[in-house]
Amino acid sequence: MSQKFKKLQNRNDDSTAYGKWFATAVYDQHFIETEQLADFIQTQASVKKSDIKAVLDELGSAMKHFFELGQKVKLDGIGIFKVGFSSIGMADKDDCSAATITTRRVLFQPESQRIVVGQQTNSQGKIVQKYIIAKTLVKDVVFEETYDTSLQPESSSSNNGGTTGGGTNPGGNTGGGTNTGGGDNNGGDGDDTGEND
Fold first, then answer.
1. How does pLDDT run along the chain (197 residues), one tens digit per residue?
2. Distance CA 109, CA 194 (A)
3. Bridge partners (DSSP) listed for residue 109
4. Under a CB-based contact definition with an 8 Å cutoff, are residues 187 and 169 in contact?
5. Could you give the angle at which helices 34-44 and 49-68 cross, rounded to 10 degrees?
6. What is the CA radius of gyration of the chain?
7. Pairing of strands 3-9, 21-25
8. Is residue 105 a contact partner of residue 180, using CB atoms and an 8 Å limit?
9. Where are the beta strands (DSSP E) in the chain?
């Protein structure tokens, strides 16, 4: 199994990457839903599907409860979820209030692992480790080009400003609002990469 991609050309005249080709993630229009997750988890654990489904059904309510308390939710092996938002800029500090908060969103910071890939000697003669930070959920994902016409990128913005779905974004992300809540890119995919917990 693999994550499929197609080659799409940047056709945004204003982009410095105009004319270049980028690998762009494409997706089946079918979602994996709670029922299928419960089926799969049942094959991996000694828990009945009905119990798994009951827990998954309650997960959303539990996360909402803790978000309302201003808490971040960390799921081991998955990552951290928290509330983010955009706010209207006000000239006067006293005018800035909860009423100026506009878009609300859930920010997700994937769990990551530090993987040592070697060592080198720095300018002071000390040996230091070379490492990469790998996202736990996707570090073993294999990629494969597809020609299946039923698989499409999530947005047509890939043809006029960059790619979507986790690909390179040559045209840049644009969007309104102020960056608030820990690293959301306001107009991109909503990943939160601005914080280490």
1. 688 899 999 999 999 999 999 999 888 888 888 999 999 999 999 999 999 999 999 999 999 999 999 999 999 989 999 999 999 999 999 999 999 999 999 999 999 888 887 888 888 888 888 877 778 888 888 889 988 888 888 774 434 444 444 444 444 433 334 444 444 333 334 444 334 33
2. 8
3. 80
4. no
5. 120
6. 21
7. antiparallel
8. no
9. 3-9, 21-25, 73-75, 79-87, 101-110, 112-121, 127-135, 143-145
